[in-house]
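Lecture notes, unit on binding sites. The following record was shown on slide 14. It pairs a sequence with zinc ion.
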Amino acid sequence: MAKHPVPKRRASATRGGRRYSTWKSKELKRLAKISKTVPCTKCKSPRRPHTACPVCGYYRGRVVVDLAAKDTKKVSKVKA
Ligand SMILES: [Zn+2]
């Protein structure tokens, strides 16, 4: 006896097609979520939401990433 679940019948092409018919739309939704961008408030370049701008280093109206200092990207929080 097989120790794992074994399908009793072969899945038809229709059945398989029905199952995978939702795959593309789900995948597109997932990719759309990943690639979602909002314009930067300072330089208007697209950036990921809730992240510092990769172009100017601004987040919520102040510099959070000092792009001039390349080896230390994160700067301690400046009181603005
Ligand atoms: Zn910016």
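Take-home: Residues 37-73 form one domain.
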